[in-house]
Amino acid sequence: MHHIPDRMHLMLSGGDSTHEIYRPPGRDVLQGIQVPTFAIAPEAVLPSVSNTTTLHVAKEARAGLSATPKTLSPWLFYDEAGSDLFEQITELPEYYPTRTERSIFAAHAPEILCEAAATSNGTPAPMLTLIELGAGTATKTGILLAEAVRQQGSVVYQPVDVSETALAEATDNILSSIPGVTVRVQVADYTREALPLNRLANTRTLALYIGSSIGNFAPEDARDVLRNLRAQLLPGDTLLLGTDLAPNGGANANKTVATLLAAYDDAAGTTAAFNLNVLTRLNRDLGTDFDVENFCHRACWNPAQSRIEMHLESITAQRVHIPANSAGPALAIDFAQGESIHTENSYKFTTTAVETLLASANFKSTKSWQDPQHLFAVTLATAI
Ligand code: AVI
């Protein structure tokens, strides 16, 4: 069985500027493809886009490697090998976010669902419909769906993702394990397209944006993603947002910079392999001649930006070539010894920063849950 990560993050070129946006996962990103909502058999209606994807890879690599400082978009991580490596990362002892968020759902799902359905005037609780942005294979979502079925008898679940293979896997997993769920998958890029919700009469929407996905956006882009979502919701609908906490960002000082650094530079070297795999991908997809042995993985904490940064550092002075292709002419890229390619940001939040971000997109934070060690937060917010 293939494994696809919960999330991925990228830099997209828009006109002549490059800006950071966030994109859900998938081995091959489906650029600009939007198909109608459909049930269960997404492969049947999607055209092949492998050439489009390769062209997009070429454009990203050219723009990023010609820039100063050099960058590569994080969505490039998620080819088949990178997706498998990310899946391994989520199970590493050092990488706490995935299991911690799952533990928060396991401990608090009844309360989360009750809060999302709560009414202030004593009227009966509305039926909740769950949508999920960047759902991927929706492995953690099952806990919330099972609780929704327990509370309301059945639930409609609308996962949104650019990867139809991930959505097919999510659908299979959920339908085979949680009776009472109706799955309506939607293949779409939620960072760039409106999300038609196909709202059912007399229901309230609970939107899930979990897995710390929001942390892979620059702050302005994070706000824009939430505003795009908010534009599709009605007042009273809710958003459940998963955020990784900054060092000392929770209610105590348990979480240190060392905790964070270990999560992004694990002892087994899986995150290093994940980071370096992007060079292998470029060699394969574009015919570049990166000597992967000549680069090393670096993770650092940027306190001013409250983010972990991942870089690939050039061990020696070296020249790398991008062959001519439909994205442009042949290019030679020079690296000084110690120069790095910035490959990812992963922002970490204080509880105040989460509230401020939500408010900037017209959500009011109503309740937040953290694990006992205050590593991770799950925040419910109401559309106002
Ligand atoms: C997908 N995203 C939330 C991960 C993170 O923690 O920022 C990606 C990742 N990069 C290295 N390890 C995990």
CATH class of the largest domain: Alpha Beta
Proportion of strand residues: 25-35%
Unreliable stretches (pLDDT < 50, length at least 5) are 1-49
Q: Determine the CATH topology of the largest domain.
A: Rossmann fold
Secondary-structure element order, as H and E?
EEHEHHEHEHEEEHEHHEEEEEHEE
Give the tally of β-strands: 16
Whole-number total of structural domains: 2
Which ligands are bound? N,N-dimethyl-L-histidine
Mean of residue pLDDT values: 86
Name the CATH superfamily assignment of the largest domain. Vaccinia Virus protein VP39
Helical proportion? 25-40%
What is the rounded distance between the termini? 41 Å
Q: Assign an overall shape.
A: globular
Number of helices: 9
- Rg on CA atoms, Å: 21 Å
